[in-house]
Amino acid sequence: MKTKLVLILVLGLSFLHRQELYAQSFESYEKHQYIKNNDTLPYRLLLPEGYQKAKKYPLVIFLHGAGERGNDNEKQLTHGGALFVSAENRQKYPAIVVFPQCSQKSYWSNVKIAGSGTNRVFEFTNGGTPTFPMQLLLELMRDLDTRYGIKKQQVYVMGLSMGGMGTFELVNRMPETFAAAIPICGGANTATAANLKGTKWWVFHGGKDDVVLPRYSEEMVAAMKKNKVNVKFTLFPDANHNSWDATFAQPGLLKWLFSQSRSR
User: Fold this and answer.
1) Cα 131 from Cα 117, distance rounded (Å)
2) Cα angle vertex 69, ends 68, 72, to 5°?
3) Side-by-side strand order, sheet with 231-236
4) Which helix H or strand E contains 215, and what residues bound it?
5) DSSP state for residue 104 in the 8-state scheme
6) What's the CA gap between 220 and 151, in Å, rounded?
7) pLDDT for 55-105, tens place per residue?
């Protein structure tokens, strides 16, 4: 009995220690809010170590999934936050990294969702009025450009699940902005493919994804290739919806991202 109690205590302390380290690792992300009229977009911002106002840096926008929606300005770092705050990556790829947070009852992209599980259907809109979080994000993009030194030829966007869909949407709405985009387990209206040519793409999905079926990425990639968009596609055959774990572990992921540059 004592052995079991000791084991439980040790495991509990270990969990708390991991949670404390997890929280500490994200302290470098400054808490901000973009406010327009009565609407607020919380976001976390990571500046390069030794940030200098006179210098210009690449900008990375990271869009979280539906499970991280809210207004706590914390959950959006759950997946992907550790990728950019690691000492190795901060040294290799000094950049301004922004994680905005979508409100609980909204979505990054214009999409209608019906059904559940493998019967879930996503109907993506081509254009139309952006959702409130997307509209605020579009305005935040302009605001960041005025307040920070950003290399306009090195602006990137990544996102997973709902954020993967938002990645397609954001580039479609700002087709002259992004050098590269990485949507993970997302999707979009295939009619938007012709508008995505100026950006280089690396699309990821899990072959066993039963939340957002792989066909949504497959159909987009096929449409992009048909429209001569520079795109490559990685399908993880055994991954389910959390294919972001395999994506973040992909060798050369950030090297590829930061090597892309858009001619101006």
Assistant:
1) 24
2) 90
3) 30-36, 39-46, 96-100, 57-63, 150-160, 180-184, 200-206, 231-236
4) helix 215-226
5) T
6) 28
7) 999 999 999 999 999 999 999 999 999 999 999 999 999 999 999 999 999
Tell the residue number behind the tokens 């990645």, with chain if given.
167
The reply to whether the predicted model has a pTM over 0.70 is yes
DSSP for residue 259: H
pLDDT at position 241 is 97
Q: Which two tokens stand for residue 66?
A: 């539906």
The sign of the torsion formed by the CA atoms of 179, 222, 83, 68 equals: positive
Pairing assessment for the beta strands 30-36 and 39-46 based on DSSP bridges: antiparallel
- Chain mean position to CA 117: 23
**Which tokens hold the place of 38?**
């009565």
Contact 57, 95 (CB under 8 A): yes
Q: How many CA atoms lie within 13 A of 138 on its CB side?
A: 17
